[in-house]
Amino acid sequence: xRRVFLIALACLLTLPGCVAHGDPTQPIxxxxxxxxxxxxxxxxxxxxxxxxxxxxxxxxxxDAIQSAWPxxxxxxxxxxxxxxxxxxxPKRLHDEVxxxxxxxxxxxxxxxxxxxxxxxxxxxxxxxxxDVDGLVLLAPYLGDRALLTEIDQAGGIATWNPGPPRAFxxxxxxxxxxxxxxALSHDRPRTANVWLAYGDxxxxxxxxxLLTPALHADHVLVRDGGHAWRVWAPATRDILxxxxxxxxxxxxxxxxxxxxxTRVP
Length: 265
What we know:
By secondary structure, the protein is an alpha/beta fold. It contains eleven helices and seven strands.
């Protein structure tokens, strides 16, 4: 997987804006905001390219998440670009953050990521499928324009032919990531817990219509605004409120023989 993230780095460095740095010789820095009541769930938030732990603390995500899920701890994981450069970011995220959280005994763990963190969320799901209970993708970075154009000209993700499967390498990581997205599109129970949100003026918005057919239509939220936490945090609150409403409806509604149910934590 090492070269996957080296090419991801090269692509991400071409985007405008600053870059947050970290020390990958040290464990991934984290900060946990305790739930407002006894915690039964955890949401792990991955940063965008410019975000360090302080920026995550100021993102508004903890307040947004806990206003919808007051029983959720929120862990910010400072998985900056320097960690991706080492080539083992998903493994480190698993070993240092998610596996210990699972051992803690949460009944559900969700992973949310913005921009670069959205890319990292999908890469984690590709390497550790179904290891977390749900994904919240906030304007994820999905690769360069050439491949996006290829998918678009093929008629979209449903009719695009990614070619024979390959290992994640410098040349193939973007194609393999989209192969994973295509596989998700055929696993409707899995995508019952995958959500997407982005702003209508987001600089990465051109890729989003290629991703949305892989998801449930009502799991895609488009909000006013650009590539910023002030868009993503309220959208995350709305997503979790919708999940909670669906959970309550399922609990009080008719039996599965009479209607299908979305699995929610």
